[in-house]
Amino acid sequence: MTTATGEKRNEPTSSEYDVAIVGGGAAGLSAAVFTSRYDCSTVVFDRGPSAIHRCYNIENYLGFVGIDPQQFLQLGRAHAQYEGCEIVDDLVETVERPEALDGEFRLETQQSETVTASRVIAASAYTADYLSSLDDGAFHEPGTHPVDCDTATGRTSIEGLYVAGWLSGEPHQVIISAGHGARVAKSLITDLRVEAGFWDEVASYWDWRVAGGTYGDAGWNEHIEEWVAETIPEEESIADERRERVTEAIIEERRSFQLSEKAREQRTADSRQLLETHLLSDE
After folding, report:
1. Torsion from C-alpha of 62, 205, 255, 244, nearest 10 degrees
2. Which residues, at least 6 apart from 48, have a Cβ–Cβ distance to it below 8 Å?
3. Contact in structure between 123 and 181 (CB atoms under 8 Å)
4. What is the 3-state secondary structure (H, E, C) of 50-117?
5. Of 207, 204, 178, whose CA–CA distance to 191 is shortest?
6. Is the full-model pTM beyond 0.90?
């Protein structure tokens, strides 16, 4: 099992990430699980005023009739770490996008750490003043809430910048914030796929698992090829090379959704271990 302590690192291990998430509450951690599982190098910066810390007991999160917020967060951090995410105990003070970085974001932290990221998810609950330098100060006015975005997807007017959780204007509930973080991560992944050549009708990504042997029988490849061909927009010209590349990618992707019985048992055992360590332990 991958080390998943639920504890935060003092500093990031890299200066470059695919995704940087500001805020380690339900929205930020949920988004991190999805982006990490899509093999995006992901870092979560988790320090500062957190809404969930003001809650005495979480009683309306599906599966929990009562859980201490600190245990909930530690379990969530452990899950994100299990999927490959880094979680750093530091406060992001500024997010900028200098022309010299050619579209990359630069994040400066309270502890004088500097990292770059292709995409940023703002998932802090109370403040987004660290975004005030973007677009020459025109994007976000300090002290305002929520941040202007498409609430359904989390996308903003700045390409590569997303907003998740209460900061987006979504209702202020832990379970809704977690769900919104997942939706925003899926929007980010969709945008990555469009950049990679997927057209809109096949750009959405489903993170799920099926039993081994579900895909790949005699007529399965042909079925996928026919389906992909049907999704090509009539008004758009898709080169044969691009169509073949995307079709093959989707076929391989669907095959990767299959999980052997052994792997399923291992994931189940790992899940139980995380629960025992972070929730059921007497320590």
Report:
1. 170
2. 23, 91, 124, 126, 127
3. yes
4. CHHHHCCCECCECCECCECHHHHHHHHHHHHHHCCCEEECCCEEEEECCHHHCCCEEEEECCCCEEEE
5. 204
6. yes
Q: Are strands 210-211 and 86-88 parallel, antiparallel or unpaired?
A: unpaired
What is the tens place of the pLDDT at every residue in 225-282? 999 999 988 877 889 899 999 999 999 999 999 999 999 999 999 999 999 988 887 6
Neighbour tally for 224: CB within 10 Å: 19
Any idea where the domains of the chain sit in the sequence? 16-195, 200-264
Compute the Cα dihedral for 220, 222, 224, 226 and give only its sign: negative
Question: Looking at the DSSP assignment, which residues form a beta bridge with residue 122?
Answer: 22, 163
The CATH T-level fold of domain 16-195 is FAD/NAD(P)-binding domain (3.50.50)
Length, in residues, of the chain:
283
Q: What are the backbone angles phi and psi of residue 96, rounded to the nearest 5°?
A: -130, 165
Residue type (1 letter), 95: V
Residue (of 171, 172, 164) closest to 147 by Cα position: 164
Q: Are 197 and 229 in contact (CB under 8 A)?
A: no
Amino acid at site 20: A
